[in-house]
Amino acid sequence: MAERFIPKATEHVAPDEMGETGQGAPRPVKIDPNTIEPLETLTSGEGAVIQDRAHKAETSQMVRKQLQDHSKKSRIKAGVRPRVKKHMAPRKKMTRPVFIGLCSCAAIVVALLIGIVVAALNAPSTSLEPSQRVEQTQAKSEEGIEYDGYTYRIAQQEDGTWAFVRSTNDGSSAITIFSLEGTPVTVVLYNGAFVIPENLNNSWKVMVWVNADASIPDVLTRGDNEPVQGDGSIASASLDGSNLVLNFDNDVTDTISLA
After folding, report:
1. What is the pLDDT of residues 196-243, one digit of tens each?
2. How many whole angstroms separate alpha carbon 66 and alpha carbon 213?
3. E-strand spans in 183-242?
4. Which is nearest to 170 in space by CA: 139, 149, 194, 156?
């Protein structure tokens, strides 16, 4: 251990006792050995401390420990935490008029939704799929046949002749598809083909027109490619399944297959 010298207070010596040389130099002072105390040894923890790496690490560890101890003391345990009451706005009580008004609005909304759904279900379809539209039918009088968004019928022209015309369902924008030579008996629809029997002067024939682009009218033919025509006059014509049945004035019946 390092030893420390601790000087003791000495008695005051008068200047005349110290003595001076002729040139002002100090003269030796007489010291009594009995008045000087022995040197004392430094104990642990006393004296100067040398700052080295090990001491710095120890100091840092002590500081961290003190901080941890302070944090533990300042932390509030869950069991002893003060209970803070939440500040909540007072709940407003719904009055009877407000409740009745809300129920009425909900009922009106539900009724409107039901009405919209029912109207949508009952609305007529503007376009039919091929599996839903009528493919085989016969016109009644001059009412015509509705097909693919149009109405097809026979109509008499201003000059007295007849023609096969097409118009929109509301009757506007009518166009003539082709003119007939004689007087039509009826109009029959069979799988997209319009069949029109007509009477000429002491003869008759059956015209056919297919609903397709660039289609032209022609005389209907039988299975052996023989035209469906002859002498006489057609009294009536009807669609019977896949057959066109012609009744003549002489009580003769002719059945033509359309399949």
Report:
1. 999 998 899 999 999 888 889 999 998 888 999 999 999 999 999 999
2. 100
3. 183-184, 188-190, 193-199, 203-210, 218-219, 229-231, 234-240
4. 149
User: Cα–Cα distance between 222 and 70 in angstroms, integer?
Assistant: 114
Identify the three-state secondary structure at position 195: strand
C-alpha gyration radius of the chain: 64
Backbone φ and ψ of 146, nearest 5°: -85, 130
Structure tokens at 20: 């001076």
What single-letter DSSP state applies at residue 160?
S
How many C-beta neighbours within 10 Å does residue 119 have?
A: 9
pLDDT tens digits, residue range 91-132? Answer: 666 687 777 888 888 889 888 888 887 776 665 444 445 445
Alpha carbon 97 to its chain's center: 38
